[in-house]
Give the backbone structure.
Amino acid sequence: MKRLKRVVAIHDLSCFGKCSLTVALPIISAAGIEVTVLPTAVLSTHTGGFKNFVYRDLTRDIAPITIHWKSLNIDFNAIYTGFLGSFEQFDLVTKFFKTFKTDTTIILVDPVMADNGELYKIFNIEFVNGMRQLCKLADIIIPNITEATLLIGEKYKPGPYTKKYIENILISLSKLGPKKIVLTGVFLKNGEIGAATYDSTNDEIGYILENQIYGNFHGTGDVFGSALLAGLLNNFNLDISTSIAIRFTVTAIKKTALAKTDMRFGVNFEQSIPGLLKDLKLA
Ligand code: PXL
């Protein structure tokens, strides 16, 4: 039996309100991939819609953790970054990439910083510049439309979008450096939602669109990113991995909407895992 592939997930640990590490760890593990975690911060809840959350920044632990792992000769098939806890973490994560990247490592950066036309309240424009630098080092980035427009320095525009508009964004993003882009929150007409993919190595653009379920469900970007990476590491291509991840995310949102759970609490991805494993041909 071959050894498991291994991902290192560099995100915060929001203890309540499923997102970031509390979804990356179970989803990627369920897909047969070992997950190492590097928490960027510990929060009592995520920052989306909760007040007075506890926020413990772990910036000063990142370098010693990197040095310790290097001394153990650990290697990673993929490095998956999400919510970073401070501006200083951009340099530390860049060093982490340099320390662990090999010819075959996939660096997937989710530039978590904004949604619905707004930067998350805890971040400022300097943070956007840091994220842009980090994206330059990635193989794949998975921004939503708000993050994408911030990265390329354009004004946010609410949808529906034209294919021309989306394709300009994808190409501008690829000019930053990453060869592959998955842009989320795309819709060409009202009532649908999904992603557009761009692979600059063969200049292919794809759209994966589903019926929209209204509401602002938290943590769905992380559910999507985790399932996408699970697809890629199980050897599916970018488009198939994206459609598997969208199906998984939409199923989880539907279950959550039916149960009328508080949208801040996260989505029911747990009971959607069997379907994900079928799509990944693991069950
Ligand atoms: O899901 C993105 C995310 C991750 N981590 C924290 C967040 C958010 C979005 O609000 O606040 C702490």
Observations:
- Residues 44 and 54 are 5 Å apart (CA to CA).
- The chain is about 40% helix and 20% strand.
- The mean pLDDT is 97.
